[in-house]
Amino acid sequence: MGAMADMQTLCNSPSDTGGGMAGREAGLAHDEHQAVRLWLRLMTCSTQIEQVIRSKLRTQFATTLPRFDYLAQLSRFPKGLRMKTLSEYLMVTGGNITGLTDQLVAEGWVERVADDEDRRSMTVRLTRSGKKQFSTMAKAHEQWLEHLLAPLGADAARELYEQLGLLRQIVGQRMEQLAD
Amino acid sequence: MGAMADMQTLCNSPSDTGGGMAGREAGLAHDEHQAVRLWLRLMTCSTQIEQVIRSKLRTQFATTLPRFDYLAQLSRFPKGLRMKTLSEYLMVTGGNITGLTDQLVAEGWVERVADDEDRRSMTVRLTRSGKKQFSTMAKAHEQWLEHLLAPLGADAARELYEQLGLLRQIVGQRMEQLAD
DNA sequence: GAAAAATACTTTATAACTAAATTATTGATG
DNA sequence: CATCAATAATTTAGTTATAAAGTATTTTTC
């Protein structure tokens, strides 16, 4: 519980929306509702980290975040994944997967394999060379994140992780009901 | 720190894929390091909410999230903002702001105003009509988020908000040090 | 006060992403 | 078994984003 007390002390209170606030929350009014504020802050954190990772991937490996994410998912499934499944895991459209796959195939990272059981389906998997090259990137990627998030501390990280798990569940449920 | 051990971490079997895990976290192994897991979960939450808001904006107002975000920032500053400042608040490049501004000007949402004090600079501000139309969208936007996040509860929402505040600070500091 | 550096915006080229339509295949229903 | 709906991937057209280079202006430095 001591960690929490420290956190609240260090952290901006909701009223601290005055000067020097970075990102989307700049100039946010006091009476802005909590849901909107939470969403903006979530976006800010996500975008900040994203930009660090993008920048690192570009300068150190001449690649992009979408490609890395694609390869990272594939690397978890040695037998490969259907493109449809991959699009669900990455939360992007099928058309996007088609495009990324074309590129990564052309560059030798992955290969398309026809599916015997369903001829509509294509399985995509890392090539031997793709596996090898990706493992280097993945190690670096992990270290960037560890360095970036280290000051948070293990306890706060775990707590945040759990709370985001709840949020994910809630939003996931709401999305199912959503009929626009 | 054997390369072999890491390789196994990277290419773990899907057997530990807990049932029904959505998004990027699918197939994530238990021994994946905490920083990476936290980042993936943050991305998942952010993307989920983003997709709801995008979809709603499209079906109900025939507009997009980037445009909404742009207008939302402007709406907080009745006197308008310099494009440079806006690009910082929205955390996007200047070129992006130029493009969005061109469109929003063409469609009558905002207007460019030359800055007398600095002739390199342009201030952009909502038109009267832009203000009026945006206020309708903003109300709906707030309700979507309230409905979406309601099950979280006020206490958990506040706590998550504070924790993300700490994260934002930490990442912000680390970004400054970052020399790639 | 002239040269050099920094800044604000724009332009260019390209990547990533989406929604919607299309094609090919599979599954379900009468 | 024939049709109709659902599904997996692709194609197409358009939006959003980036990095890098270019232009015009301001600021700094010597």
Write the layout of secondary structure elements.
2 copies of one chain form a homodimer.
Chain A: H1 2-10, H2 34-61, H3 65-75, E1 81-82, H4 83-90, H5 94-106, E2 110-114, E3 122-126, H6 128-149, H7 154-177
Antiparallel strand pairs in A: 1-3, 2-3
Chain B binds a DNA duplex (30 and 30 nucleotides) through helix 4 and helix 5.
Question: What this model shows, in words?
Answer:
Two copies of one chain form a homodimer. The longest helix of chain A is centred in the first third of the chain and has 28 residues, at 34-61. In chain A, helix 2 (34-61) packs across helix 6, helix 3 crosses helix 6 and helix 4 (83-90) crosses helix 5 (94-106). A three-stranded antiparallel sheet of chain A has the order 1-3-2. The N and C termini of chain A lie far apart (41 Å). In chain A, 28% of the residues are buried. In chain A, a hairpin with a 7-residue loop joins strand 2 and strand 3 (122-126). Chain A has 180 residues and is mainly alpha-helical. Chain A is built from seven helices and three strands, in the order αααβααββαα. At the A-B interface, helix 1, helix 2, helix 3, helix 4 and helix 6 of A face helix 1, helix 2, helix 4, helix 6 and helix 7 of B. Chain B binds a DNA duplex (30 and 30 nucleotides) through residues 54, 58, 64-66, 82-84, 87, 92-100, 103, 115, 118-122.
